[in-house]
Amino acid sequence: MGDLTFDEFLQVDIxxxxxxxxxxxxxxxxxxxxxxxxxxxxxxxxxxxxxxxKHYDPEMLIGKQVMxxxxxxxxxxxxxxxxxxxxGLPDTEGEIVLIGPDGPVPNGGRMH
Length: 112
Hints:
The protein is mainly β. It is built from two helices and nine strands. A five-stranded antiparallel β-sheet has the order 3-2-1-4-7. A hairpin with a 5-residue loop joins strand 8 and strand 9 (96-98). The radius of gyration is 14 Å and the shape is globular. The relative contact order is 0.26. The model has no long low-confidence stretch (mean pLDDT 96).
């Protein structure tokens, strides 16, 4: 990977939101969960599909704050339109662990 300029970094809009709805996505090619995330009044609710079934069940995600890129174009994932990219890191087995704040913060806050 090459170096980014600071202006290029600022073009990536990473925000915090709260999961308000989550459902299994058994039709996905790889096991996934459909997420609906509230980013507050400015951005509203957006949805995503995430391959996070190793560490998460849909019920445990409700109310969880997550970080996501909100300015990518929507992407069709099977029959589901993903509007954001929820961010996570791989554990030692390559399974995704979601990234979020240590404590409650207002939805829609932009990462600095």
